[in-house]
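Q: How do we represent a protein-ligand complex in a form that can be generated token by token?
A: Start from the inputs.
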Amino acid sequence: MLVTTGTKQPAIGRTTADRELYLFPFTAEDFHHIRSLIYRVAGISLAPSKKDLVYSRLARRLRVRRLHSFAEYIQLLENGDAAEREEFVNALTTNLTSFFREAHHFQILAQHLATLPRNRPVSIWTCASSTGEEPYSIAMTVVEHFKGFDQPVQILATDIDTHVLERARRGIYPIDQLSKLSVSQLKKFFLRGEGKQEGFAKVRPELQKMIKFRRINLLDPQWPISEKFDAIFCRNVMIYFDKQTQFNILKKLAPYLQPEGLFFAGHSESFHNAVDLFRLCGKTVYSLRQ
Ligand SMILES: C[S@@+](CC[C@H](N)C(=O)[O-])C[C@H]1O[C@@H](n2cnc3c(N)ncnc32)[C@H](O)[C@@H]1O
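Then emit the structure tokens for the protein with S-adenosylmethionine bound:
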């Protein structure tokens, strides 16, 4: 097992004073340009107070590309360097997540699974899946409900950030991040690392097989998906978008839900502006307004 540390930690030893000095020139105009670019590319609305955060997230990219200022970096991005644009987006996303986050959603999912017809596969989409804890929690819920790994269930896990998707595919986590799991879940779903991998656990291949990971930008006008889903998890991502972007995405997501499907939102996300599309049917759980 190869374990890498996150890419968004501030450099060790860097102090606030260092950041204030901005070793790479970073003007108000540069910051404005970066805010509008990430909004255009990913829909992310960065608050004006985030200048230091943006500096610390992107300074590493300037070092990697051997650039001397943010103006040069912006030039590179605007010249259409696709690989750098991907790194730019990766650097500016926030990927906080955990296993069985908002645990009540997984109980509701299990109850929902019990109501679904058994004559077709069950389909679930998590559209901001980050480092994988959410899709693996869904997969564990499915296996526990149907009492087996070999069920006709497909889980699609997508995110805009290619680094987190890679980590999700690998499925290796520090043991201390698995504290919400019972001993029997740990045994059933994880392999404990030994030797150099001590302190880490890897998701069992049977569970990994249930999930397809793909990069999808929720802002794209079209998504390469043709099926409908029995449940869509769209949690803790809308908070990064403004109201209009949220509404546009909700409008695009609604037709992907089965008529009886459930839409799971994050704990601080409410869709008052989309009452024509969804109706609340549980704590941050929605169904289609038929
Ligand atoms: C805070 S995490 C939420 C993870 C998980 N859904 C949860 O609730 O624990 C937000 C995720 O949204 C992703 N994201 C941000 N903008 C996106 C976009 N335009 N399209 C798809 N994913 C996006 C980020 O890369 C990040 O992994």
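The longest strand covers residues 257-265. The beta strands are 122-126, 153-159, 172-174, 190-192, 200-203, 211-215, 229-234, 257-265, 278-282, 285-288.
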